[in-house]
Predict the 3D structure of the following.
Amino acid sequence: MKSNKKLSKSLKIGFSSIVIPAAFVASVLVYLFVFGDSSNFVGGNHDNAALPGNFFGIIYKGGPIVPIIITLLLTVLSFAVERYLAISKAAGKGTIVDFMSDVNDLLKDAKIKEAKDSCNQQKGSVANVIYCGLEKYQEMEKETALPKDQKIVSIQKEIEEATSLELPALEQNLVILSTISSVATLMGLLGTVIGMIKAFSALANAGAPDSVQLAAGISEALINTAFGIGTSALSIVLYNFFTTKIDKITYSIDEAGFTIVNTFAAKNK
């Protein structure tokens, strides 16, 4: 079981190390050859202004910060898919509520073997923890040398150890989503500041202020802010979505552990 956990962890670390560089390469290619395509600009030259209403051309004019924000966006989407699949797998088959109800009924009837079979069928993180707790439950029932309090402590310790193996796998990569939610906004603001500096510098060098040129420069600079805030908002929504799902699984694990311990205590007075 521990070797499987280590293998799973190494695969996730490998996924993390591959996704971000791959997202960066893809972002640069999209920026140069899709947004920077000559058909998006006046006169077929990306040094000129973007065609009126051409969104790709406008984004390209956001400057070199745009590929970085696109990288963040692709990273968010990639980890969102990975976390959704991982958490869905951890939830197991069927609903956790129904599974917990079945296990509770089986424990009340002292059907430990049937409860373990139910865990094998459910195949989720909650089921894994319950299965470990039930194995220790059976072991403690056969143990005659230990007092009741130590048996209960032993069951609780087994459940805690099983939980400590499951939770890190559920929370893997969420810190990246949390970090991007802040970094994306900052990168958008950085791109906007750089764009504003360039716009005002061009006006200063040109001599007489040109309101049209200034408005165009500001519009291009603000693309970074809009792109960055949009990426940040998506990251925050996904982070909260996944943490809510994990909290439900964690609550179910705690409830399962409490039920197992209480059932043992009630049947071994």
User: Anything to note?
Assistant: The first helix runs from residue 2 to 35. Residues 71-267 form one domain. Residues 1-11 have pLDDT under 50 and may be disordered.
